[in-house]
Amino acid sequence: MTHDSPTPPDAAANFRRVCVALTAVFVVYSMLQVTVPVRALDLGASPLWLGLVFSAPFLLPLLIAIPMGGLINRWGGRRMMVSGGILLLAGLLVMRWLPGYPGLLIGQMAFGLAQMNLVLAAQSVVSGLARGETLERYFGWYTTWLSGGQVVGPLMAGGLIHWTGGTDWPLLAAALVALVTVIASAGLTGSAAERVPGDRANTGFRAQGRLLMGNGAVQVSVGVTAAAMFAMSVHGSYLPVYLEHLDIGASVIGVLVSLRAMSAMVIRPFMTQIIRWLGGRSVTLVLALGLLGGGLVLLGMTGQAVMIGLFSVLVGIGSGLSQPLSMVIMAENVSPAQRPGALAMRLMANRAVNFLAPLAFGALLGAGGFGLAFPVTGIVVAVAGALLWAYLRRLNRPS
After folding, report:
1. Which long-range contacts (CB under 8 A, 24 or more apart) does 302-306 make?
2. C-alpha to C-alpha distances, 272 to 44, 275, 276, 334, nearest whole angstrom
């Protein structure tokens, strides 16, 4: 048995364990999307401080994601995921017990590093399970599980903040959820625990730079995920702040934040059928970016909770299609030895956007308020979709 071709029982068991582990991670992530803004606002954070706090989880992954991809080959998926789960738990406890901005910043940075370890290792494991439409279904269901976690998390955090009047209990609850990640990751067996033989030709920044420059499918994957992550980062970080600004209660904030993940969760199991119905992956990707951009543009034009929820659903459908499809494109167009490094490069692009988007949005927010910041962000994503369409037509044109 090889790492890239596990037996069916091994693949099914590992797939379930990876889904459980990463669902718990995204429950924690989405709990923090509600808890951290409320905690920061309780400290009197300015828009600039909010941007710094929201960007903190993405600084270290931006710098070390590609070297971490090589480490997955050397350590194997199980070891990387267990260590990531332990770091996740530690970061949440720091955020709970260390007061003020230092606790928020250090905890957010630890969370970001842990999430990077877990996401990269999980994607590498899932990528080796199948090809073609089967791999589309795997990633569709994998990301459906993650979206389920993002539905539950805001509801948990919003309810706990409402009932307890603070953010301490949500952080402790998130720490308990993080234990699920450690336990599920420790159960991985077979191919998920194996190391992949490799060499320096497939790892490091230069290797990923050559891969990006020479592989059109990788370019599409990275470009799509960067544009989609830009939209989702702004939506996830600043929607709770916007709703707080509108004097909407914490429990309602939790419901509205979860709508994006809920709509993504509903659409992802049907990704293969949608691709067939639309006539291919290219059209699906462009449509997804159009929904993301349009949802953000419209979001800044309303202050009504019902309409905010509706436009968040558009953002959720766009992210629900774009993210798993970009992973499938990446996984199918690189070799098994290249896969962790390529996925790490994709994640590095995500984290660069995650780091810069809140800061840019914070500057726009300070200059023109939410009515300007959300539409401008949406227009940027829509333009990225138009550029992608032009690039795909050129890439597929017969020479």
Report:
1. 303/246, 305/243, 305/246, 305/248, 305/252, 305/256
2. 46, 5, 6, 21
As a whole number, mean pLDDT of residues 260-289 equals 87
Rounded Cα–Cα distance for residues 295 and 286 (Å): 14
The rounded distance, in Å, linking the Cα atoms of 374 and 235 is 8
pLDDT digits (tens, 9 = 90+) for 134-172: 777 878 888 888 878 877 888 899 889 989 888 889 999
pTM for the model? 0.71
Please indicate whether residue 249 or residue 297 has the higher confidence score (pLDDT): 297
Helices (H), 165-202: 168-186
Name the residue with tokens 């994503």: 381
Q: How far, in Å, CA of 259 to CA of 254, rounded?
A: 9
Higher pLDDT, 265 or 108: 108
Distance (Å, rounded) from C-alpha 292 to C-alpha 314?
A: 6
Question: How far apart are alpha carbons 29 and 276 in whole angstroms?
Answer: 32
9's tokens:
């029982």
DSSP for residue 2: B
Query: In the chain, which residue ranges form alpha helices assigned H by DSSP?
Result: 8-42, 47-55, 59-75, 77-97, 100-127, 132-164, 168-186, 204-214, 216-245, 250-267, 271-278, 281-299, 305-332, 339-368, 370-396
pLDDT at 4: 46
